[in-house]
Each structure stands twice: as structure tokens, then as C-alpha cells.
Amino acid sequence: MTQPASTSPNTGDRTFLDSTEMVLNMGPQHPSTHGVLRVILKLDGEKVLGTECVIGYLHRGVEKIAENRTYAMFTPYVDRMDYVASVSNGLGYCLAIEKLLNTEAPLRAQYIRVIMTELNRLASHMVWLGTHALDIGAMTPLFYTFRDREEILKIFEKYCGARLTTHAFRIGGCIYEAYEGMEQEILKYCDFLEPKIDEYEQLLTTNRIWLERTKGVGVINGEDCIALGVTGPVLRASGVKWDLRKAQPYSSYEKFDFEIPTGPNGDTYDRYMVRIAEMRQSVRIIRQAVAGLPEGPIMAKIPKVLKPPVGEVYVSIEAPKGELGYFVVSDGTTQPYRVRVRPPSFVNLQALDKMVRGQLVADVVAVIGTLDIVLGEVDR
Amino acid sequence: MLQSFLQYLDSNVTLTPGAAGNYLWATVYVVVVIVGVSLAVLSMNWIERKALAHMQVRLGPMRVGPHGLLQPFADAIKLLVKEDIMPDGADKLVFWLAPVVIVITAWTTFLVVPFGPAHAITDMNIGVLFMLGVSSLSVLGIVMAGWASNSSYPLMGSLRSSAQMISYEVAMGLAVISAILMTGLNDTGIYFHHAVASAFPGVGTLSMIGIVQAQAEQGTWFVFKFFPFGLMAFVIFAIAMVAETNRAPFDLPEAESELVAGFHTEYSGFRWSLFMLAEYSGMLAVSSIAVTLWLGGWLRPFATWHGPRITIPHYWQGGALDFASSLLPAVVLFLLALVCFVGVVRMPKIPVFRIQMLGLAAFGGLLGFIGLVLLAPPVRDRIQDIFWFTFKLAVFMYLYIWYRATFPRYRFDQLMKVGWKVLLPVALGVLIVTAIVGVLR
Amino acid sequence: MPEETKGNPTAPQPPAEKPAAPAAAAAPAKPAAPAKPAGPVPQPWNAPLPNSLQSRFGSAIKEASTYIGQNYLVVEREVVRDVLHILRDEHQFDYCVDLTAVHYPKKDLQFEIVWILYSFARNERMRVKTQIKDGEPAPSVVALWPAANWMERECYDMFGIVFTGHPDLRRILLPDGWNGFPLRKDYGILQQDQAWVQANLGIESGQ
């Protein structure tokens, strides 16, 4: 735990009594920091002069553990990083190891992966929407989004046995075949969800209070996003139309037709609109994937004992929160030599300082919510 | 001995309000109103939790008593037996006094609330002014609570609360004035002679009962008078009263997800329950102002269809609409009893639920019995006014809960902006236009 | 032994030597472990970008290769900052994707620092690597990409690599007073700074 940056009271000719700066601690236990995050705010009255994030409360040494497990044994660990959207983590890791092995999952497995990943994107955005609205004071969308997310979790449970930390994929493809009636159930869910997204919008999008709380709050422009390495909906809401599923497609995303929503201003409202639009696009992708699901094997032929050749590879995917990357170094043995996870929330959280300067204290909570961070991923 | 007591009971009893006559009857009235308000607060607690839950696709309390009906009692008992914590450096006297001040001001406002033409504890001729003034005193209690907590965050929270309440009182006051104006003006702008309330023709009245009488005599509720200005004044008051009582969407000072905690952070147990009591009582009080000033108080809809009515003394005046309306309280209670019995039928038929079924059936039976009592002619005539007043209050309470479920929260600077830069100018404008329209028409 | 189910997309592969095991030949004749087919090997990366850098820096660019379609440069420590600067300014690599390190304790140059860069304009990703000795500092690129701020702090936290020029280099994930750099290979998987644990958490051991 780092010491807070000192706010020296005696600066130049100002005495202690003249100091108008106050240091406020939003401690690790706080209903709105979405995990164990400590934010130290330097305030001038209500205005935020600077912030400092203290992280590491959830550091579990995932990268060190990776060096002590075999490639396949490590796969369940990655779910626990971004535990809200665990399917994406697994997808990224499996893609990285498959690239290291120079293989590709069969087409049917790729389609199933796309379906599961997009469902997981929907679930993650629903959690985000509910908790973000709750932070800003609207209590009700939380219950609506969690109720609708239950159906996705039921599908996950039927598919791979787990609701949250799914471990849905394996290196080389999928281990679980689509269960009996899965396609119909998913299509029914898509039909069920689209009016629900309209319902969430009805509660918030044109609500005068919501607009006042989110427009102009936490603005960051496109260049600052790129310089700070911010990716995901935050980047897209600042006007940069970039999505890894389109720029560097993986797992047969190039076969699907979908749009990349962007926002003009880079404020909280735009990030909200971008994520709502992404939810709609996800439903679109799922429909296409289910309709075009090919027959065939679901697992590539890879050896039982995985010993990738010596080398290193970096593979990244578009997780719901941003660019999730895996840098894997192999030394030819059964255990990875180094696994580095490039977490989107870790890099996005750096932008908090820039987004919150000059705003009021009550907006800090809104901005943390709009960044959509998961501390499991920030700290690993 | 008994003779003299009965003589004392009958002395100076009149049917006119404001003249309870002797101290005994005055005390009885006060106790009745306080008990009624407390019962209302208790049921508000339950209704809020259930209605909020159903709006949020969940059930709310279901275990403590059938469908959670005993939850308020359980909460009250829990709060009473909780440990009484006082912070270390707190100012003991002020800490003890703050919730007392708030509750007393909240209850004192009910002195002039008219549940019917002869059903007020007293009818001051400055009734509305009295209510607004006394409810402003609660700000003092809030500041005391924040100060006595000896901690910077409750202090900041209490200062914010008080700033918010003071700001919105201005808009409330201006809206109230435009309603008061209407009491003295009829459609043709000619000054209006009141039957009872004032000795001088053409003068409006601040008396709560007089305001409702003015609505009765003019044949229109003030919310429809000088359309749309009566409506605008009503809407301004309806918004300002939500801010006045620190309820959503103006509940930033007591929101948990914000950094600055509310003024009642350091209070626990019984003292905290006093704050909650005062909050709900305040909601009832400002709602009763709104109902009295704009929604016709105890008048039923279309009360004056057949012409202006003399309202004191109130007897059933005949006519089909009157008869139907007099059955309404009983019908409402029968419907509630029906809902209870449907709940009983729908309960799972396993032994564990037997006691809940019995409890709910008993509650339904109680409601039905009260409904039957309300059908008896002597009660039926006299219960009309109280029923309509309470019904309108209940609508406002439901609106409070609905707002809480729907709206996000205003940030504090936006809250103050709305109070000073939006509501105040509009209220001022409405007031001026009402005055002009009233004279010109 | 990974079989190639999909050909290497970038460069022609040396023909995969089939293991002697399947089908025909009798088992006893072949060696005990079938010869491993040569996996993908790094191919030289011939493109204007590395060529221009090589002509500029000469032998300081130790290697410019492609492995499974991913380009990387290995650069001497002294010039790496200039190389990164040129990459950002002249070749539009405006996004620092990641910054990490790998520890090879057996080598003389123990730490390999990896910068992963991406260019929006060219839709291209590349890696820049450099090797440093234990105890040597590395140049900080926070001035080039502010994204590197926390990434360098994490490198320092996990490996002990000091980045010169970093505005605020201190531990980020581990507590401030922690001794030891966990991602080094000589740090055990169950090892903890017991002194810190006892002093700060009041328990005997973190295990």
C-alpha cells in the first residue's frame, strides 16, 4: 500500500492556514469502487485537483502461478482475472497458446466461441449498466439487468457447468458440444433481450437527471486515449472507431456483419450509449453465428502433452472492457516460461486522473463506474 | 363526581374547529392525530419496501408476518433494543436534542391539517403560514444533528441538507402564495365573499379549512383554476416538496454511494428511528399542504356538480353521486380485504405456512370488519371527508415511492441550480401571472 | 510433437519431418523418441521499417525477425530509447500496447524487456526487445507514451528493473515495504516477505 502523495502545506509563501487543499480517501471498502480500489483525492472544496489510485489489494500472482502450471492447467486461472466476463479471458489465452502451437480451432469451435464470447459481452455490459446506474442513484435498472443476465448465466451453466468462472474453452477448440436445444434457446433469448435493452434505454437515455449527471462528465478525447493506451468502449466513445474484432479479426469474426458504435464527445453519456449499442450489435452477431453454425469437429488435433516450440507470441482480443492481451513465452517445456496478461482495466484506470481533474467529487464515482474496471483484472 | 365529569366533557364542545373547548378534548384530538400519523408512518414503511421491491422486480419482505406485514413492528422493536451509541467527542445535550427537535416540529405541523371541515385540531387563521414556518424549524434540528456528531462528514452532509431545504422552501412559498391568491379571486376577478372564513368580503384566507372552503365555494379545485397556472403552481410545489423532504431524486445528502455521509450517520437505534419518523411525517405534512391547497382537501371529485355546497355543518346532502361516494371507503377496504384473501389462497399449502395463512386471513378479516363498520350510516356520513383526504395523501406517498424507484440522483450543485435558477423564477412568474389573470378576468 | 494442422502463414516452412512412428517403418529401428518436426522458426523480417532502422543504427539492431507472423526487433539497450522515439514519431506507432520483462537467469543479459507497440494508421503491431544485465537501468518511455507509466511501475515491482526518467517509480501491486521481486526466477512460488507480513498483518506467516 503506497503512502498518499504528500500535500505539502507550506508551498512558497502560503502558510498552512491558507491551504485550501484537502486530501480525501475513498478507501478500499466503498460501495462504489467496484472492488477493492483505493482512490486518494486531492480536493479544493468540491473540485478534484488530482487523484491517485492505490491498487494491488487483489493481487494474487497469476503470472507467477502460470510459470508453475502446465499450459492446460493454467486455463481455469485466467477466468478469475476479469471474473465478470470470464469467457473472454479464456478465449484470449486459448488463442494465444493455439498461435504458439501454430494451430487453429476448427470452424465449428470458432463459431461456438463467438457465441459464448458475445453472450459474455452482453452479461458484462449488463453488470456494468446496473452498477453504473446504481452509483448515479437510479436503483431500478440494476434489478432489471441482473434479472435478464440470469438467463445468460443459465445458458452458460447448461453449456459448461459454471455460471461465472466458466472455463468454457480449451486449447485447440471447445470441449463441450452445443447442448441439445442450445441454438433455439439462444435465439429465444435474443428475441427476449432486444425489447429489454429498449426498456433500459427508456429508463435512462432521455431522463433529464441522467443527462445532467453524465453529459460532460469525465471527458477524454481520442488522442489522450491513444496516448494513455485506453481501449474498448472508452476509446470508441472518444471518437476512435477501432475494434480488434474488425481491425485484426480472430476466431472467425471476419465472417460476421456488425457495426462499431462510436461516440462524439468522449463523456460518460457517450460511453453509456456506446455500450448500449454494443449490446445490440452483440445480439446481432449471436444471431448470425447461431444461424451459420457449421457442422464438424470442435477440437483440433493437438497432443495430449502440450510442449509448444520455443518462442513467444502476443495475442489480443477485444474483451468487453478493452484490449485483453496475452504475451506467452515458451521454452519448449510443458510449463510456460512467462505469461504476461495485458489487462484492459489496468491500463484504462490510468486514465482516471485525466478524466476526473476539474470535476466535482460526486463525479468521481460516476467516472469510475463508466471506466468499467474489474479489480481482479487490474491486480491479477 | 361522575356528573361533574360528564358536564366537563360537554362544556364548550362545538363542532367548529379551532374551538375544542376544553383541554381534555384538545388533548384527545392531539393524541388521535399523533397516533394516526404514527400509524401512517408505520404503514408507509411497509408500503415503501413492498412497492419499491415490486417496481424492482423483487418481492420485498415476505417472512416477518404474512407478506412482511409485521416488518415495521419488527424494525421498531429492533431499533428500540439497539445499543445507544454516542460518539466520543459529541456534544451530549445537542446530540440528544436534535432528533427531538426534528420530531416535534414535524408533529407540530399537524395541528392545523384539516382532515375535514370540522376535523382539525385547531383552525388558525394563519394555518398555511404556521405549517411552513414550523416545518422550516426542522432545518435547525438537522444542523444540530450534524454539529453534534463531531465528525466532518456528517457536518458537511447536514449543511448540504439544510442548504437544500432552505433553497426549495422559497419556491414552495411562492407557489403557496399563488394558491392563496386564488382563494380571494373567483373566475370573474370579482372579489369573493366567503361564507364563513372571513368577515370581510373579497379577502383571501390563510386558514387551511378556509382554503378548502374557498375551493368548495368556487366550485373548482385550485389545480384547475386559471388553467394552466394553477397546475404550474401545483407542479412547482410538488417538485419542491420532494426536495424539502430530502427524498429521491434530491436525496444526495443521505445517499450511501456518495462520499459525504448524511447527517444521521452517527445516530443509531431509537434516535435514528426518530429521524425516520420525522422524515415520513414531513412527507405527510407537505403532502397535506399540497392536497389542501390545490387538490381540494377533503372534497370528493365533482363535489360541487350540483352547485356550491355549504360545508359546515356537513351532512349528507343527498344525490346519487353522494351516495356512491359514501360507499367508497367501505368498497376500498373490501377490495383490500379481497386482496388479502387472494393472498391466502395463493400461499403454499404446507404446514410451515399455516400461521402465515391464518395471520393474513385475520388481517383480511380485520379490514373487512372495518369496511362493514364504515357502511353503517352514522359512520358513513362522517367518514367521507377523512377518507378523501387520506386517499389523496396516499396518492402522494405512492408518488414519492415511484420517484425513488425511477430517478437517478441529482448532484448537489445541479440540485441547487434547479432550486434557484429554475423553480424560483418559474414560481415567481406563475405568481405574477396568477395575480394579473385573476384581476383581468 | 505438434503436428501442423495449419501451415505457417508468413514464410515457407522447412518441410516438416514426419515422425518415424506412424504407419510403415518398424518401431525398433527408429530412435527412442521420434524426431521432433522442426517447429516454426523466426524468419528474417524484410520490410522498409526494420531496414531503415538497421541502416540508421547498424549493428545496434541485433535482430529483426518474424515469428508466426509477429514482427519484432531486438535492440541494444543504449539505442532502444531512440528507436522507440523514431517508431512513434516517424512510423506512427502511437499506441504502447504493453511493456513487460522476462527473466532469463542463465544468460548474462538476464532481463529481456519487451515493448509491444501498435500503429492505428498502419494496423500493425510489433515488438521491440532489449536485454539488460541485472542491476542495469532501462530507459523509461513515459514521455513517449503516458500509458507506460503503470506498466513500468509493475515491471519494477515484479522484477526490480529501474526505469530512468520515470516520474514516480514505486511499487504498484505489492505493498510499499515489500522486499523481493516476485516474478524473478529465483523467487519461489510460495515465497513471501515474512518480515513484512508479520509486521503489518500481525500473523506468523502468510501461508
Main β sheet profile of chain C: 6 strands, mixed
Helix share bin of chain A: 40-55%
Report the CATH architecture of chain A.
Orthogonal Bundle
The strands making up the biggest β-sheet of chain C line up spatially as 1-2-3-6-5-4
Counting DSSP H or I runs of 4 or more residues, the number of helices of chain A is 15
Shape of chain C: elongated
> What does the average pLDDT of chain A come to?
88
Largest β-sheet summary of chain A: 3 strands, antiparallel
Order of helices and strands of chain C: EHEEHEEEEHEH
* Oligomeric form: heterotrimer
What order do the helices and strands come in, and which of them pair?
The complex is a heterotrimer of chains A (380), B (441) and C (207).
Chain A: E1 21-26, E2 38-44, E3 47-54, H1 62-66, H2 71-79, H3 86-100, H4 107-136, H5 140-160, E4 169-170, E5 173-174, H6 182-204, H7 208-214, H8 222-228, H9 233-237, H10 244-247, H11 268-291, E6 311-319, E7 322-330, E8 338-342, H12 344-350, H13 352-356, H14 361-371, H15 375-379
Antiparallel strand pairs in A: 1-2, 2-3, 4-5, 6-7, 7-8
Helix pairs in contact in A: 2-3, 3-4, 4-5, 4-11, 4-14, 5-6, 6-11
Chain B: H1 2-10, H2 23-55, H3 71-81, H4 92-108, H5 127-136, H6 138-148, H7 152-184, H8 208-218, H9 229-244, H10 270-294, H11 320-346, H12 354-375, H13 377-406, H14 412-440
Helix pairs in contact in B: 2-10, 2-13, 4-6, 4-10, 6-7, 7-9, 7-14, 9-10, 9-14, 10-13, 11-12, 11-13
Chain C: E1 43-44, H1 48-57, E2 61-67, E3 70-75, H2 77-90, E4 95-103, E5 111-119, E6 124-132, E7 138-139, H3 148-159, E8 163-164, H4 194-201
Parallel strand pairs in C: 3-6, 7-8
Antiparallel strand pairs in C: 1-2, 2-3, 4-5, 5-6
